[in-house]
Design brief:
The chain is α/β, with parallel strands linked by helices. Helices cover 44% and strands 8% of the residues. The protein is built from 16 helices and 8 strands. A 6-stranded parallel beta sheet has the order 3-2-1-4-5-6, with helices on both faces. A two-stranded antiparallel sheet has the order 7-8. It starts with 18 loop residues before the first helix and ends in a 12-residue tail after the last helix.
C-alpha cells in the first residue's frame, strides 16, 4: 500500500514543534535504540543459552554426571506484554529457532495476545506459574508494578531460572532482594552525546532492523555506537550465566570450559581461551580438580563487583574482539547443534 502522505512535510512528526521541543527530538532515536539493543542483546543471550543446552544434551557431550534425556529446548517466559514485551516476543518468534510452544507469556490482559495464541504461544495471567516453568524469565513490567510482581515471584523461582530484567529504574542489587534470587541479568545502558543517535531512527520495523548489519554492528555490546553504551560487566555476567548452566548440569569444570569455548571456537584463536583462572580466583582455580564442577556464581556480584573475568576481559583485546565477532555472527545465524562441536 502506498503512503500518500510520505513526502508531505506538513504531516511529519516535527511539524508544529517549537524550537525548544525540537531540541528533544534525539529522545525518539534514543528510545528506538534502547528497544533495538534490548531485544538484540536478549536474543544473543537466548541463542547462546540454547546452543549450550543443545551441546550439553547431545550424545557426544553426555557424561555420567549429565542426565540423559534432559530436554534441550529452551523454555522462555515473558512477564508483561506491553511495548517491550511484545517487541521481544516478536523478535524471539522471528529471529530464533525457539518453538512457539516453548514460549509462554503472563499478562494482565491475555485476551490481547490472541494473534500469538493462534501460532502456539500460551498466554495467561499467572506470574507464579510462569516462574516455575521458565528457564529464562524476562521481566517486562512497568517499574510501578515491580513490587507486586516480585512479591508474586518470591520463593517461586527455581535457583536455575535466569531472570532478565528490562526494568531500568531498579538496580540489580535491589531486584535480587525483592526476588530473593541472585541469578539475574540486567543490562545497564548509559548515554553519551546525541549527535550519533540518529542511527536508531531506522528501527521503525524491529524485525527488519534486526537483520540490518549496520544496526547489529552499532548494538555490539563491546563496541556500541549510536550514543548508547553498555558496560563490560554485562558481558561478564552473560559468560558467568553460561558457567552456572554448566554447574547446574553437574558438568565437570574441564568440560564446562570446553563447552563454553566451543561456542566461540571460530571467533578467537586457540592461544586465547577461557580457563578456570578467567572465572575464579587463582587460589580457588588451583585447588579445583578437573572432575569437580565450578561453584555457583552470583550474577548480582558479577555485575556490581570487580571479578576475575572482568579483569581478564579488560586486558585482553583479542578476547573482546572474538566476543564481538561472535555476537554479530550469532544474531544473523539460526541456532543449530551442527554449528557447534566439542573441542
Amino acid at each position: 500500500m502506498v503512503d500518500v502522505a510520505a513526502d508531505l512535510s506538513s504531516f511529519s512528526f516535527e511539524t508544529g514543534l517549537t524550537e525548544d521541543e525540537k531540541k528533544l527530538l534525539y529522545l525518539r532515536a534514543r528510545a528506538a535504540g534502547l528497544t533495538f539493543c534490548g531485544c538484540a542483546h536478549a536474543l544473543y543471550l537466548c541463542k547462546l543459552v540454547h546452543s549450550l543446552r543443545c551441546i550439553i544434551t547431545s550424545p557426544a557431550a553426555q557424561t555420567d554426571s549429565v542426565a540423559s534425556g534432559e530436554d534441550s529446548d529452551l523454555c522462555v517466559g515473558i512477564l508483561g506484554l506491553g511495548h517491550m514485551g511484545k517487541q521481544l516476543l516478536l523478535s524471539l518468534l522471528e529471529m530464533t529457532s525457539i518453538k512457539p510452544s516453548h514460549i509462554k507469556v503472563s499478562t494482565r490482559r491475555p485476551e490481547s495476545a490472541a494473534e500469538f495464541v493462534q501460532i502456539g504461544v500460551e498466554c495467561f495471567f499467572d506470574n507464579r506459574r510462569l516462574a516455575a516453568w521458565a528457564d529464562i524469565l524476562f521481566l517486562c513490567s512497568l517499574p510501578s508494578h515491580l513490587p507486586k510482581v516480585c512479591a508474586d515471584l518470591h520463593s517461586h523461582l527455581s535457583k536455575h531460572c535466569l531472570v532478565y530484567s528490562f526494568t531500568s529504574a531498579v538496580p540489580v542489587t535491589r531486584l535480587a532482594e525483592l526476588l530473593g534470587h541472585n541469578f539475574i541479568l540486567k543490562p545497564q545502558y548509559g548515554f553519551m552525546g546525541v549527535d550519533t543517535a540518529d542511527v536508531w531512527l531506522s528501527c521503525t520495523d524491529l524485525s527488519m532492523a534486526l537483520k540490518d548489519p549496520l544496526l547489529i554492528e552499532a548494538s555490539c555490546p563491546l563496541t556500541m555506537s549510536g550514543a548508547i553504551t553498555l558496560s563490560l560487566n554485562w558481558v561478564c555476567a552473560v559468560l558467568y550465566s553460561l558457567l552456572n548452566i554448566c554447574t547446574s548440569a553437574s558438568l565437570p569444570s574441564s568440560d564446562a570450559l570446553s563447552l563454553i569455548n566451543s561456542l566461540f571456537k571460530e571467533k578467537w584463536t586457540h592461544t586465547v581461551q577461557l580457563n578456570a583462572q578467567s572465572f575464579i580466583s587463582s587460589s580457588f582455580a588451583s585447588s579445583l580438580r578437573g572432575e569437580e564442577s565450578f561453584p555457583w556464581i552470583s550474577l548480582t556480584d558479577a555485575q556490581t563487583k570487580e571479578t576475575p573475568l572482568l579483569r581478564f576481559l579488560s586486558s585482553n583485546k583479542s578476547m573482546q574482539h572474538g566476543i564481538s565477532v561472535a555476537y554479530k555472527s550469532l544474531l544473523g545465524t539460526p541456532v543449530s547443534l551442527d554449528t557447534y562441536t566439542l573441542m
